[in-house]
Amino acid sequence: MKRYNRTHKTSIAIRQCKYLNNIGEQDHRAVKWLTRPMLGFTWFWTARCTIAGIEVMHAIRKGQLEPTGMVSQTPAEQFYALAA
């Protein structure tokens, strides 16, 4: 790796961690927690819509979706404004 970095003038580093994908797994943990009691979905369309709604609400709660206006809104109000 050191020789490759020298010849190609890059700075690639190998991270040696047993749980590199743990961050990705933690991100969709909320979706798994909410959909497990549903015992699966009958139709792909309902699964897609439900999971999209859960992901949007999760992003709003984490502050990743900025409100559209000067008025401060709660996460639920932001979600309903998007749905309207």
Strand content: under 5%
- Number of structural domains: 1
Choose one word for the global shape.
extended
Number of strands: 0
Q: What value does the average pLDDT take?
A: 77
Most strands sheet = none
Helix-strand sequence:
HHHHH
Calculate the terminal CA-CA distance, rounded to whole Å: 53 Å
Query: What structural class do you assign from the helix and strand content?
Result: mainly alpha
Point out poorly predicted stretches. none
Report on this structure:
- The protein has helices at 2-8, 22-27, 29-35, 44-62, 75-83.
- The model has no long low-confidence stretch (mean pLDDT 77).
- The chain is built from five helices and no strands.
- The protein starts with a helix and ends with a helix.
- Helix content is 57%, strand content 0%.
- It is extended and about 55 Å long.
- 2% of the residues are buried.
- It is mainly alpha-helical and 84 residues long.
- The protein has one domain (23-83).
- The longest helix has 19 residues, at 44-62.
- Helix 3 packs across helix 4 and helix 4 (44-62) crosses helix 5.
